[in-house]
Design goal:
heterodimer; A: mainly alpha; MetI-like fold; 13 helices; globular; B: alpha/beta; eight-stranded mixed β-sheet; five-stranded antiparallel β-sheet
């Protein structure tokens, strides 16, 4: 068991190294370059530009810069943002909580909605509700999130005026202005009304795919011999499904959830942009626009670490759900 | 002959189990009549696909519908019509009054729950025991099927047990509530010979000591001779011969039964080719007209091709063959 996780950890470090090399290369290969935004500036002389390049270490060849970056990163220093001049790590850590808040809420919405839909579809196969769920999930998978997000904004913010179109909290929101008794509810609603639309947009594709996956996984388990045994021993159908079948059906879903973490990060980039959510995704887009390569690398690496840790967690959870796994290590 | 075993436990009349498939309707059981008396072992003999397991699953009401469809003129256990029970009532009958064990001991136990959990669940369901009492009863049930260190085994997962052990655990689960009827669907097929003998011994003990009637489904003639009192031979969804085990082996009546017995390898016989019944099991989608066995029958004559024979009584046995029609008069 310990050996198994040591090995997993070593693979994790190796993956991070490969990811850093690949993303550094890709960023290097993209057109423009970090100095591009100064080139058109008529007020800058060639010497000014050279000075800037030297200051950021951009005068050195790419492989050298990679190793400098790697050395600094290993010491916990992700570099300085070309745009703001502030440490990349500080910039990211400022934005990370917002992204994690959005992602965690979406993750739980996805689980809470997808699993019951999947169970219902599997136990009522080919019923009207199952077919409807199937149609909706195809729709959910095919709707682009930027379009769906704009549609929600149009409906609930512009037309109905129920929810704010963007942001995370009203800047002048002051909980102290409300009586103590209702204050927790006011705070809760203040957070919820901003979160609701981006979280739904971010959950949509996962709800669609996970509910379908849950359905087929449960159907697969229900046709197994051990489910027939449980029925033959008089276990009532509800218990057969919710106790004996569900645990077996959930194991592959947990793996899928782990693998889908990058989908959340990628989705967050788009969703945060639409709803002006002050998270890492928006930072990423503005950094890409400004050719702020240090920030891009920083976000990529932090995301990679989170995704890999998520997968490790999914693995751990898998071995808890499935007692046979521990013996294969 | 029938009068020596007066107490009827299970009476099955004209069981018809159909499956709707894309290629047409498969009549897996096509009018099966069976009677099981209290405390007896009834053997069900037949080739693969002749409707043995389907009959057992129909009695348990475990045929999935759709595509299955079960109808019998009578299906009474201790005078109670099983077909008229609600699903909830039926789940109280399963495991409590009728139990079933299966041949696939590898896949017939839930891999994600311990043996104890699965066994205790069944006990708590049927005997209204609390967890502690069920725990002790579970140890008792495992000891009954001669599992050594039963208390320790309770916390084992199925994959930690051998095939023979798993089959015993299944037996323990099925017999934990001392049902009046045990349906054993090829319980020894997947086991090696020494383990087969032990399981057989257990079945015999359950029948004689615990007074559990057993419907033993098998294609193993030797096993049948060992343990059964009466035998029903099935062919293509109908009973072709009903006989005591002595009659069946000494005076087989139906040409199919004769063929089966003739195909047994004999130790003392010269090393010659084994006899086979010519032809193969008929396609269940398009059964031959008349007697279903006539294309393979060495005694086939005119009427066999035109009309299906009823069961004719003959020397205390019953046989579905026109050869015995004359003797009826």
């Amino acid at each position: 068991m310990a050996n198994r996780f040591l090995r997993r950890f070593a693979t994790l470090l190796l993956s991070l190294l490969v990811i850093s090399l690949l993303s550094f290369t890709l960023i290097e290969l993209s057109p423009g370059g970090a100095m591009a935004r100064y080139v058109e500036n008529p007020k800058m002389s060639e010497a000014d530009r050279a000075r800037i390049a030297e200051r950021f270490g951009l005068d050195k060849p790419a492989p050298v810069r990679y190793f400098i970056w790697l050395r600094n990163t290993l010491q916990g220093d992700l570099g300085i943002s070309f745009m703001t001049g502030r440490p990349v790590l500080t910039e990211i850590l400022e934005r990370l909580p917002a992204t994690l808040k959005l992602m965690t809420v979406s993750f739980f919405i996805s689980i809470i909605v997808a699993i019951p839909i999947g169970i219902y579809s599997a136990t009522h196969r080919h019923s009207l509700a199952d077919n409807l769920a199937s149609a909706c999930s195809f729709l959910g998978l095919s709707l682009p999130s930027f379009w769906f997000g704009l549609l929600l904004i149009y409906l609930f913010s512009i037309w109905l005026g129920w929810l704010p179109a963007g942001g995370m909290i009203t800047p002048w929101f002051d909980p102290a202005a409300y009586p103590l008794l209702i204050r927790p509810f006011v705070i809760f609603w203040e957070h919820t009304r901003y979160l609701l639309m981006p979280a739904i947009v971010l959950s949509l594709s996962n709800i669609s795919s996970w509910s379908r996956y849950m359905r087929s996984s449960l159907l697969d388990v229900i046709s197994q011999n051990y489910i027939r045994t449980a029925r033959a021993n008089g276990v009532p159908e509800r218990k057969v499904v919710y106790k004996y079948a569900l645990r077996n059906a959930l194991t592959p879903l947990v793996t899928l959830m782990g693998l889908d973490l990058p989908v959340f990060f990628a989705g967050a980039v788009v969703t945060e942009q639409i709803f002006a959510w002050p998270g890492m995704g928006r930072l990423f887009i503005s950094a890409a626009g400004n050719r702020d390569y240090q920030v891009l690398m920083g976000i990529t690496m932090i995301t990679a670490v989170l995704v890999l840790l998520g997968n490790l967690l999914a693995d751990l959870l898998y071995s808890i759900l499935n007692p046979r796994v521990t013996y294969e290590g | 002959m029938v009068n020596t075993l007066p107490d009827i436990l299970l009476e099955l009349k004209n069981l018809r189990t159909k499956f709707k498939t894309f290629d047409g309707e498969v009549r897996a059981a096509d009018g099966i009549d069976l009677t099981v008396h209290k405390k007896e072992v009834l053997g069900i003999l037949g080739e693969s696909g002749c409707g043995k397991s389907v009959t057992a699953l129909s009695i348990m009401r475990l045929i999935p519908s759709p595509p299955g469809e079960v109808h019998a003129d009578k299906m009474e256990l201790n005078g109670v019509e099983l077909q008229s029970l609600t699903e909830k009532q039926m789940s109280k009958v399963r495991g409590n009054e009728i139990s079933m064990i299966f041949q696939e001991s590898f896949s017939a136990l839930n891999p994600t729950f311990t043996i104890g959990e699965q066994l205790i669940d069944v006990l708590m369901l049927h005997q209204r025991l609390d967890r502690g009492a069920a725990f002790h009863k579970a140890i008792e049930a495992l000891s009954l099927v001669q599992i050594p260190a039963a208390a320790k085994r309770l916390s084992d997962y199925p994959h930690q047990l051998s095939g023979g052990m798993r089959q015993r655990v299944m037996l323990a689960m099925a017999c934990a509530c001392t049902p009046s009827l045990l349906l054993a669907d090829e319980p020894t097929t997947a086991l090696d010979v020494t383990i087969q003998a032990q399981i057989l011994e257990l079945l015999r003990w359950l029948q004689s000591e615990k007074k559990i009637a057993i419907m033993l489904i098998t294609h193993d003639l030797a096993l049948m001779a060992e343990i059964a009192q009466r035998v029903a031979v099935l062919y293509a969804g109908v009973v072709v011969e009903n006989a005591s085990v002595q009659n069946l082996f000494t005076k087989p009546l139906h040409p199919y039964t004769q063929g089966l017995l003739a195909s047994l390898p004999l130790l003392e016989a010269e090393c010659e080719r084994l006899k086979v019944i010519p032809g193969g099991v008929p396609n269940m989608l398009s059964l031959p007209d008349g007697c279903r066995f006539h294309p393979r029958c060495p005694h086939c004559w005119q009427i066999c091709r035109q009309e299906e024979p009823p069961l004719f009584p003959q020397n205390g046995s019953e046989v579905r063959c026109w050869l015995f029609a004359r003797e009826m008069k």
